[in-house]
Amino acid sequence: MTLDATDRRILKATASGLPLTPHPFEEVGRWLVLPENEVIARMATMQEDGVIRRVALAPNHYALGLAANGMSVWDLDDTVAETLGAEVGALPFVSHCYLRPRALPDWPYNLFAMLHGHTRDEVEAKRAEVAALLGPAARGHDILYSTRILKKSGMRLAGEG
Amino acid sequence: MRIALPQEALDATDRLLINRLQDGLPLTHAPFAPVASEAGISEAEVVDRITRLREIGAITRFGPFLDAEAMGGAFCLCAMAVPRDRFDEVMTLVNAHPEVAHNYERQHKLNMWFVLACERPEQITDAAKQIERETGLKLLLFPKLKEFFIGFRVEA
Description:
CATH superfamily of the largest domain in chain A: Lrp/AsnC effector binding domain/regulation of amino acid metabolism (RAM) domain
Radius of gyration of chain A: 20 Å
Shape of chain A: elongated
CATH class of the largest domain in chain B: Alpha Beta
Oligomer: heterodimer
Number of strands of chain B: 6
Number of domains of chain A: 2
Largest interface: A-B, 78 and 80 residues
Helix content of chain B: 25-40%
Largest sheet of chain B: 4 strands, antiparallel
Radius of gyration of chain B: 19 Å
Number of domains of chain B: 2
Shape of chain B: elongated
Distance between the termini of chain B: 16 Å
C-alpha cells in the first residue's frame, strides 16, 4: 500500500511506542491535531494491508528468564528446503523461521530457526528435536547463542513525515 | 538486559498482561478494556502496570510493529566478524544507523548480527555499503527468501 503524509505522521509519532494512557489513539490524535477516529481508521487500514503487523507488547526474553536464545542454522538440500522449513516453522518452540541464501564459502546454512529456553540445555534439547525432524536432509548445522542485545528499536521511518 | 528479573518482580496480573498483549491490541477508543476486564482491574491500572513493566525492563517495546515489506521496503539480516578489540567501536558505528532495527552479539566467528529495515529495497544496499566503508569490515547479507508461520509467544 502507498502511505500518505498523514499515515506516515502517525507511524512516526508512534515509532518509539504508543502513549501509555487508557485512550492512546486519542492522545496520538492530540499530538497530530487529528480526530481520534481518523487515527484509528488509518491504523486499521494499515493493519489490514499488513503495514502494521499488530499493535502489541514485545517482551524482553532475558528479563523473563528465557536467558538462552539460540539462532539454529541448517544446511538443507535446496530441493527439500521449503517443505522441511515449513515443518520446522510449525514447531511450537520455534519463534522465527526463515529460508535465506547461503554466503559461501563463509556460511553454508540456508535455514534459520530461533530457539529459546531458560537454559542452554533446554535449547540444545530443542535443537536435537529439530535435527531428528530433519534427519539426513540436514547436511550440517550450528547454533549461535546471543550474548547481548546491542540495539532493539524496531523500524524507524526516515525523513520528515 | 541479560539478567532475569526475580520471580517476585511480576505477579499473576503482570504475567497475564504480558501474555495477552503480545497478540495485539484492538484499535478502539478503549483498547485496554478487554484485558482489564479479564484481569479484573481498571484500564488505568493496566496502563500503570505496562509503564512499570517498561521501567523494570520486562518488556522492550509497546506499540505498532511495522512490516517494511508491506510498505514497499525491505528487511535484511546482516552479519559481521568483528575483531574483539574493536567490538564496542563497531557497535557504536553500526547502531548509529537508523536503518538498524535491532542488533545482537552472538557467540560465533560472525559475532554481530543485525537487521536493516528500510523503506525502499535499494536503501539496504546503500546502508550496507556505508557500514562496510565506515567499519572496514565485510558484511554478509542474508535477505529472507521465505518466512514460515510464526505462532510462538513467550509465556511470562
